[in-house]
Amino acid sequence: QDGSISGQVVDETNQPVAFASVTIKGGTRGASADDNGRFKIPVSNGTYTVVVNAVGFLQTSQNVTVKGNDAAVHFALKRATTDLTEAVVIGYGTAKKKDLTGSVTAINAKDFQKGAISTPDQLISGKVAGVQISPDGGAPGGASTIRIRGGSSLNASNDPLFVIDGVPVDNSKKSDGTSSISGSPNPLSLINPNDIESINVLKDASATAIYGNRASNGVIIITTKKGKKGGPLRVNFNTVNSVAVKVKNLDVLTADQFRKVVKDQAAIQNKPYAVDSLGKANTNWQDEIYHPAFTTDNNLSFSGGVKNLPYRLSLGYLHQDGILKTGYLERGSAALNISPTFFDNHLRVDLNLKGVVNGNRFANSGAVGDAIRFDPTKPVYDSKSPYGGYYEWQDGGVPNTQSTRNPVADLYLKNDKATVYRSIGNLQLDYKFHFLPDLRANLNLGYDISKSNGSVREDPTWAAAYTTGGRYHEYEQRTRNKLLDFYLNYVKEIKSIKSRIDVMGGYSYQDFLRGAPGFWTTSITKNNPGNPPTYTKPDSTQHTLVSFYGRLNYTYNNKYLLTATIRRDGSSRFSPDTRWGNFPSIALAWRISEEDFLKSSKTISNLKLRLGYGTTGQQDITASDYPYLASYSISTGTTRYLFGDSAYYMYRGAPYDQNIKWETTTTSNIGLDFGLLKDRISGSIDVYYKKTNNLISDIPVAAGSNLSNHVLTNVGNIENKGVEFVVNAIPVTNKDFQWNLGFNFTYNESKITKLSTVDDPSSPGVIVGGISGGTGNKIQIHSVDYAPYTFWVYKQVYDQTGKPIEGVYADVNHKGNGNLFYHYKSPAPKYMLGFNSQFSYKDWNLSFVLRSNIGNYVYNNVKSNRAAYSVVIDANKYLGNTIPDVLFTGFNNTQFYSDYYVENASFLRMDNLQVGYNFGKIGKNVSLRLSAIAQNLFVITKYTGIDPEIYSGIDNNIYPKTRIFSLGASVDF
Amino acid sequence: CTKDLDRKPIVDVTSDVVYSSPATIKEALAKLYGGLSLSGQDGTNPVPVADIDAQDVGSNGYLRNYWEVEELTTDEAIIAWNDGDLQNYNTNNWNSNNTYIKLTYNRIYFNISQCNEFLRQLPDSKVSGFPAADAANINGYKLEARFLRALFYWNALDLFGDVPVTTEKDAVGNFSPKQMSRADLFKFVETELLDIQNTLPDAGKNEYGRADKGTAWMLLAKLYLNAKVYTGTDRSTDAITYANKITSSGAYSLAATYRNLFLTDSRATSKEIIFPIRANGLTSQSYSNTTFIIHGSTGGKMSPPDYGINGSWSGLRTRKEMVTKFPDLDSRAMFFTEGQTIDINNITDFTNGYAVVKYKNVSSTGAAGSDKNGTFVDTDFPLFRLADVYLIYAEAVLRGGAGGDRATALGYINALRNRAYGGTSGNITDAAMTLDLILDERVRELYWEAHRRTDLVRFGKYTGGTYLWQWKGGVQAGTSIDNRFNLFPIPTTDLTANPTLKPTPGY
Predict the structure, then answer these.
(1) Where are the alpha helices (DSSP H) in A809-956?
(2) DSSP state of A707
(3) Is residue A392 less than 8 Å (CB to CB) from chain B?
(4) Is A630 on the interface with B (CB under 8 A)?
(5) Which of A33, A61, A76 is the last residue of a domain?
(6) What's the rounded Cα separation, in Å, for the pair A115 and A240?
(7) Which of B15, B83, B493 sits opposite A774 (nearest CB)?
(8) Does an H or E element contain A105, and which?
(9) Cβ atoms A54, A17 nearer than 8 A
(10) Facing residues of A220 across strands?
């Protein structure tokens, strides 16, 4: 040793920082400062970079040269912008976290889930208490069902509002459940997750009320990355390359097992001819339709600032193959942000432009169910087959119309593809008045437009389209959503009365227009009178929202906080008499830790109590934009009625309720934020009660009173109550090793408290939840005093050995009237848990996310529909595979209503596991980081289907979720 | 910009547009008739284009539901499908939660509501604003709307007894319509029909498929024939009066060949059909009309192309008791027996019970239907036809009605049998002409035409144990069933939606 480096670490007020970690970059040496902040490290001669880390402070480094001496160095650390002072984006502005009165969770890019992630919602899965994000399946770019604190509606939308850089975007579904942007798997797949800087989730009414008219289901605010003022040009290239594989096959009979079952059943059912239908092949149909699928996601960004013009430009390219053969999603994206300031920072301009082009081919997901049903003794290909060379069941020389179709042919002989362009952008002008800098005006002009072109081609040789000679159609759609927001904001600090006043008032106009022209579907080969083209009608719809809003934030003595908001909303979906609604909220917070008795506490660094109460409105009716009008639709060309020799189109009046009005949700929230040991442990606990009145419900209407047997009207109440608990901790932090962990817990219970205009205890409720198998079977019910979508089934009776007895059910109601249905469980999880942790050791890091739902049940429709001997030899002259469960139950006929098929689907999922290595500088100004990620690594569950996480609670040939392995590299210049 | 909140539909229109021109008014009228066979505004697509909220769009049409209640609950038919609680029809043990009863009820009331809406939107004051010729046409449409409403109310009182009633005088909303007794509703339907029977077009003079004097008389005859069931008072004399009006109008005559009545060109080959439910495989596609009957009754060893269709649905067969009503030489017996057993051991196995090949999607010359794909059929359903009038006349005479005579009655029956036997070999004598013979003759002549349940109820043989058929009451040999089954229950959903309703007795 030639010398040493010694010195002291102090904070901004020159107070020593005890136990700071002092390391020498590139080496293994280091030291811990003592309780006076002093340290000494012996070294050889040379120049070193000394790095100091301390909890709650920014990392600081200095270069020191040692030439046989003891080089002295002084570190004055700056306090890190901790969570508490971090700006959090809320509706129409930002707030410091310490000043929040509502329930808001902010997740920054560094905490996002990593890996092959093609939609923004997946970034925060498992990270936020009270938020349930259930993927609808494993299709590329596929949608998730997102629920914040349970669903507050029955027939209106339960999706949260998404706001991207101040523009509320369209993430809705059409009334048939498909994406509101035709040709895209999901509107959110048109947003590149790599451009996102932070995602904030607003949960309670006081946080969401400022978005009044669309906020009943919570608000998710997405802020994209921006350049930094005066910063140098930074270039980042980021690539993630992944392979997705199927997790497992659904258990069906093997070809040999199937041959035996068919022979046995042919004898039992006296259908000897069935044996002749058996083939000689051994086909695993599920292996034939899935393949490992490759994804590459590449992003290049440039950011920096030229004087007063910070900018960021990013380009992205994603190609994601689906594990179901033939399907893929391709996305090119570009995003530009510039945020210049003018007039001595009095005018701030923020311009965001995002453009995306998606190319999709949708794999025919009918293949998923067909692969389970198709006879395994049949080959995939048949050289003599006229159906594209695929084996198909026939009936008198034509394809059997009732039989299962060849699953591989499903995929290759139907080509369903689309190209979608979408752009979201806004220009925000924020002006601080020269004569009164406390007052600012903010104008936000935004748009969200899209254009879709798609085509569907059913090959003439495909058995499903054979008799029509193939079918072809092209479709188009455009959406055009506009936004204008204007508000004035006045902020005044009045020191003399220890008060801070922040008042805001504004106006908002939003217009949503969606239009698709009509189109013809034509026969490809047989353009003859027997197969005329069919016409699909245009579909255009528009609605408009107008709002006036105001908010007051008042802070007294930095300890007592008040937020009050009021919003008056008008919706074009309601009649002039009912279209306006008023939605107020109020919230109080008390920063207890600022009180004298806690201010000096070494244990409690933060303690805040929050109380919130408010009302939000709901008008997002997916079924119709005009529910109060007597509207008439005309029938299609194939649905006319004959008078004499002429076929007449038909005009039909739709049911309507001219008095339909706002559904309102009132939320009460009590929350406590805490920080212990200088916030090394921090967290919050929230208890809430949400009640929705005047539910917009599609209910059976008295016969004869309206123009159908159901009408959309305001009937019923629903309540959600729950507890959310979050804790984040830093158990270890020293120079080499840092460990963070986070845990969140949610308890939620939904209950319908009213369902009809009159109370009728004898009425079971509204039956919902259609299943596969038979015609019109439904398995769920909305009933008063039960959770929505509770299962409505028969109670299975079992023999001594635990085997269900076919067709024998207990009369649970003891009514003896032959009605054996009873309420049994619901698909909603009672508890949700998220657990995540990050470890870093020197340049290595490891992180994982574990997620668990408890108390959720799923109806195994795949099993109920297939696990019976009656499906093996179908009356319609074909054979169909069954599920080994039948060997246990011995069911001859399907037992759709048995609660045997309602299974506990609680699960624990390893969502994400990541290992990374930071190479640091690998050349002049170039740094590199590599990572390996596994997603959906394992699931622990008792559920017997492929995957237990099914939001609807009905497992019915869903595109299976995948297991994904990725390698990522990030290079900074 | 609060004015922008007044958005109007872009693709659809509001009622004022529809009822402003004679052409669109006729298209609104088409919907009232369309309610007889079609499921919605786009036959093959589900909600929101289906007329009523049903899981499966194909099952919500009128003909399918009406046919099922009239046939599956009797000796004439049985269905294999294990769909929800459909099997309860086969075994006569339904309750007020039954999905299919609900569908039937909701469909009838949907059709009634659309008729009411049509009449509501066209008050006299509005019609008089049109040019005289148009106004005359529109007034004619209104009479037809009232005929159709009377037909559906007749279905409602026949199937459900005391039911809620609304007319064009009630506004559209969410209220509780008043329940009317079966006898009062009978009176309402009768009054409506009597009021329109003279102003409708002459029998056979309207466009084919639309109502005329003949259809109104037929409905009156059917109403009076069953009056004792509905009101306790026999009205056989009135039944004869209206049967006579039909036969003496000269508009109708028996088809030369029985089987041609159930083929795609029935309209061209005869003048027997008084009121058809029209079908066309290209322009009027529905899974709820004869498409259902023809596909549904094909299966086993039957080859679908023989019936003009592309596939079998393996559902509908008949029961042994119906088969045994046919002597060998009666050409009206159209069964497919190869690979089928006459007895039904397993209801859900298509090969148990004889298949029926009465309806086909081919013409009398063997030409296939217009949908070359073979899914949707062209075969009209004969809801009212002259043979039924003959049998109504004969039965009303035997029940003691005035205005007719036994000789004419015998002549009518032998006219049908003459056609069936291809000569006089099957003719009966006056002595053989009993009420029991009439009931059996109605099976032989009118099976699978949606009359059987009403007939059995009128003869007191539907419930109880005096007449049994396989699986009646859920027992293979057949067993007695409770008298409450003479009526279907008003569905629980409507009892809930309309708390002023009293449940159907016994349920």
Answers:
(1) 861-866, 885-889
(2) S
(3) no
(4) yes
(5) A76
(6) 7
(7) B83
(8) strand A104-108
(9) yes
(10) A162, A201
ipTM of the complex: 0.96
Dist CA B64 CA B49 (whole Å): 18
B297 neighbors B356 (Cβ within 8 angstroms): yes
Tell me if A171 is assigned to some domain: no
In a domain, A930, yes or no: yes
The alpha carbon of residue A614 is apart from the nearest alpha carbon of chain B, in Å, by 25
Output DSSP code: residue A637: T
Domain end residue (candidates: A22, A46, A76)? A76
HSE-up (13 A, CA, CB side) for residue A528: 10
pLDDT in tens, B271-289: 999 999 999 999 999 999 9
CA-nearest residue to B14 within chain A is A631
- Whether the per-residue pLDDT at B324 is higher than 90: the answer is yes
Q: Which pair of structure tokens corresponds to residue A575?
A: 């009649």
Q: Say yes or no for a CB contact (<8 Å) between B31 and A635.
A: yes
- Contact (CB<8Å) A511/B6: no
Q: What is the reported pTM?
A: 0.84
Interchain proximity A778–B55, CB inside 8 Å: yes
Q: Tens of pLDDT along B362-387? A: 999 999 999 888 889 999 999 999 99
pLDDT of residue A331: 92
CA distance A750 to A828: 8
Whether residue A654 lies within 8 A of chain B, CB to CB, comes out as yes
> In this structure, is residue A220 part of a structural domain?
no
CB atoms < 10 A from the CB of B166, how many?
A: 20
Q: Is B232 left (phi over 0), alpha (psi -120 to 50) or beta?
A: left
Lowest mean pLDDT among A389-398, A407-416, A530-539: A530-539
What is the tally of structural domains in chain A?
A: 2
User: At B501, is the secondary structure helix, strand, or coil?
Assistant: coil
Residue B407: the pLDDT is 97
Task: Give the CATH number of the domain where residue A758 resides.
Answer: 2.40.170.20
In whole angstroms, what is the distance from residue A207 CA to residue A160 CA?
A: 13
Q: Which of A418, A93, A253 is nearest to A884 (CA)?
A: A253
Does A758 contact chain B (CB < 8 Å)? yes
Residues 774-793 of A with CB under 8 A from B: 774-778
Strands (E) in B226-322, as ranges, are 273-277, 316-317
pLDDT (tens digit per residue) in A559-588: 999 999 999 999 999 999 999 999 999 999
Where is pLDDT greater, at A104 or A438? A438
The pair phi, psi for residue A28, each rounded to 5°, is -110, -5
Query: How do strand A857-860 and strand A902-904 relate by DSSP bridges?
Result: antiparallel
At what angle are helices B22-34 and B132-160 packed, to 10 degrees?
20
Round to whole Å and give the CA distance between A730 and A738. 8
Q: Which member of A395, A641, A702 has the closest CB to residue B164?
A: A702
Q: Which has the closest alpha carbon to B332: B363, B358, B369?
A: B358
Distance from C-alpha of A884 to C-alpha of A902, rounded to nearest angstrom: 17
Distance CA B117, CA B148 (A): 13
Measured at the CA of A504, the angle between CA A501 and CA A506, to 5 degrees, comes to 170
Residue B30 is inside which H or E element, if any?
Answer: helix B22-34
Say which CATH number the domain at A66 has: 2.60.40.1120
Q: Domain for residue A503, yes or no?
A: yes
Percent pLDDT > 70 in chain A is 96
pLDDT of residue A865: 92
Residue with tokens 């109880």: B464
Alpha carbon of A315 to those of A109, A225, A235, A297, A360: distances in Å? 18, 13, 11, 11, 19
Question: Which structural domain, as residue segments, surrounds residue A661?
Answer: 234-972
Facing A546 at nearest CB: one of B1, B173, B350: B1
Where b means 16+ CB within 10 Å and e means fewer, A350-374 reads bbbbbebbbebbbbbbbbbbbbbbb
Instruction: Tell whether the torsion through CA atoms of B99, B101, B106 and B107 is positive or negative.
Output: positive
